[in-house]
Structure formats: C-alpha cells, structure tokens
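Entry for the shared binder. Reason: the reviewer on the internal report wants the predicted structure included alongside the sequence.
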Amino acid sequence: MRASASARRLDGLLANIRACTLCATDLPLGPRPIVQAHPAARILIVGQAPGTRAHRSGRPFQDPSGNRLRDWLQMPEAVFYDPKRVAIAPMGFCYPGTGAGGDLPPRPECAMAWRAALLAALPRIELTLVIGRYAHDYHLPVAFASVAQAVQAWRSFWPVVVPLPHPSPRNNLWLRRNAWFEQELIPQLRGLVGRLLEQPPGRLEVAAIAPLP
C-alpha cells in the first residue's frame, strides 16, 4: 500500500517536472525536462544536463558519453533505462545551450525547484553516482577545487556516493592524464554495481577496497 502511494506521489511529481517551463525563455531549444525515476530504484545517476541528442530523443545519455558510462558500470542498456532499477536525475533537466567551452552549466532553477522533493521520493537509493563538477558541488559534503580532487577522494564517500568525471569524449585527455581512475576506481565500481543489482534491497554487502598506497 505504501509503495503504491509512493509511486503515485512520484508520478505526480514527475508530471510536474516534465511540464516545467521555469527557464523557457533562457533555453535555446525550449523546455524538455528529462528525468527517469521510480520509488524502487536503488541506483541514482546524477549528471549535469541533457545534451542535444538527449533533448531530441527524450532519453538521457543516449550518446557517446552514455556508451562510456555504461561501459564503466558494465551495465546493459536494458538495465540502465529501467527506472525500477536506475534513477537518472541530472542537475538540470533541460538542455541549457552551448557556450565557447561546450555546453552551458545546468540552469540553477532546476535544483532549487525540484531536487529536494525528487530525492525524497526515491527512498531506496543505496548508491548515488555524481558526474561532473555541478553534481559534485551539490551532492558531496565537502567542496573540492577540481573534479580531479573530488574523484581522487572517492574512498571517503564509498560506497554510498561515488564522484566521477564526465564520460564525455571531451574528457579523453583527463582520462589519459588520470589513468589511475580506470585502473583503480572503475573495477571497484563495477563490482559494487553488480552486487547492488544482484542482492536484495537493504542487504548490500560491500567488499573491502584497497587503502591508499
């Protein structure tokens, strides 16, 4: 009964989010809020904001960034896009436009208007993946000077929150310069995600991670 009531509340919230026009005058392609959620989801993926491909398709991470992210997680698309297993809630729900350095930051109105209510409507989340600077700033309890510093501190938040760089091809140089990320963090993350998807809710058993050298 409670689950059914929770689902109805979340459905109403998602309907309101998808009808949101708070930033309509500032969005070059107009509003199209993109979010995936269900009360049963145990993994939450927090990105920056949808890109143009996601805006056109209405599906988050439907691009090379998504391909790399799913490879990092070793997660098939069928699981990734199953809202009962994975919630996807970027810091900005709409494509914000492009500037000189790439896509603009997520519109701040999204987090102020919707984020607290959305997170409260996802009671079973056991793992939150925070991708990129804006997600780090909101979800990590400590402020970091750079994405690299936040990701290097991943052991401090494990296994509840895991900071990640953005999987965009624009970050290929960052990944080459920080080879430890794919050598050390990604194998641990794959194991954690696999166990979370396999084990019953609330019974996640986490293997010990290697200490810092």
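Summary line for the report: The mean pLDDT is 93.
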